[in-house]
Specification:
The protein has 100 residues and is an alpha+beta fold. The chain has 3 helices and 4 strands. The protein is globular.
Amino acid sequence: MSITEKQKRWLKKQAHHLKPVVTLGQHGLTEAVLAEIELALSHHELLKVKVNAGDREERDAAIALIGERTEAVLVGRIGHVASFFRANPEKRDPILLPSL
């Protein structure tokens, strides 16, 4: 899934007020945490994930792995918190991205 920069900026605005739904702790990115992120993306489409574990390189690797494994788009990242988006057309009220 690809989104334009305009759509990414719009999603950042929508994600600003959200609280992190999933928090990675000292054990890092496990299969159970990935399953929870998958479930949250299916339900919310746009969510924040807080990555507390490790140093900067470990956090970068965890965020990249989340995007790769869940096929979600990294909308933005500020410090330990990353925002992801994955469209779910089967949702009753899906997030409608602005047109180009």
